[in-house]
Specification:
This protein is an alpha+beta fold. Helices cover about 20% and strands about 30% of the residues. The radius of gyration is 17 Å and the shape is globular.
Length: about 270
């Protein structure tokens, strides 16, 4: 199973701590060795790093781990190949332009018997079901809203419809962002935590590393971390119910049709950091 990691914040924040634990799952604490990637939104731009090798031993991943790039929205992916060869063009996350914005997409799952109609504008470069799904999503949005981006609730509704349609072909856990919001769809497994004041010490589950967020944040900071399985062992991670599409904005879930109130804790009663 591939691994997903997303971050959405109300102020530009680096993801070095969470990425340190996430990176270890690519060949050290887990067996995902078929490539990894991460994308940071910076204003209207997107800084994307891709490497078709294990993240645990990747020099590029070491650069990202130690380089405090600050962003409002980040999407990362560790790949376990099911469709498509282990090659750079098949490495997530994928990037395209729509409505004058960059869109970033990463998928966890396996879609079978999935052959969407070809798009005149959005064509896959590699051979993955994930990139085909991304092109299908953007093509549908471009056709449905030809005059530009719709209101957030309408966009959420369209994405919810597409997630259900494409999810009929198999597991379709995904993260998608245009730099304004981060959308997280849970097909089988996805959870999140919101870090805000008061900030306790958090400890990684995959590395013996801790950080006291109260020393590196301000009282008004708010950060949502979305991941396949919890990254820390002393925070209350909330499981996103299968079939749910959440929109994250300013570091927390946003009520655009589905809210986080139905999400149950992913662990019994660990220390909360939210």
């Amino acid at each position: 199973m591939c691994q997903l990691l997303g971050m959405n914040c109300n102020v530009p924040t680096d993801i070095c701590f969470s990425f340190a634990g996430f990176r270890a799952r690519g060949g050290l604490t887990d067996h995902h060795r078929d490539g990894w990637g991460i994308a940071f939104f910076e204003g209207a731009g997107a800084r994307v790093f891709l490497d078709p090798c294990a993240s645990a031993s990747s020099p590029v991943a070491e650069l990202v781990r130690s380089y405090p790039i600050r962003s409002l929205n980040v999407i990362a992916h560790i790949r376990k190949a099911t469709q498509g060869e282990v090659r750079l063009e098949n490495t997530h996350p994928f990037q395209r332009e729509l409505w004058g914005r960059y869109w970033i997409f990463a998928h966890n799952g396996n879609l079978t018997d999935y052959h969407p109609a070809p798009s005149d504008r959005f064509l896959p470069v590699g051979g993955t079901d994930s990139e085909r799904a991304f092109c299908h999503i953007l093509d549908t949005l471009a056709r449905r809203f030809p005059d530009g981006p719709p209101p957030p609730a309408a966009l959420h509704g369209a994405l919810r419809e597409l997630a259900t349609l494409i999810g009929g072909h198999g597991e379709f856990n995904f993260l998608l962002s245009d730099g304004e919001r981060l959308f997280a769809h849970c097909s089988s497994r996805l959870c999140y935590v919101v870090r805000k004041a008061p900030f306790p010490v958090a400890h990684l589950a995959d590395e013996d590393v801790s950080v006291d967020f109260s020393e590196v944040t301000s009282p008004t900071d708010r950060v949502a971390i979305i991941v396949t399985t919890p990254l820390t062992d002393n925070e209350t991670w909330r499981q996103i119910p299968p079939g749910t599409l959440l929109a994250f904005h300013d570091g927390e879930p946003e009520a655009l049709g589905e809210t986080a109130t139905i999400a149950a804790p992913a662990a019994a009663d660990p220390q909360r950091c939210a």
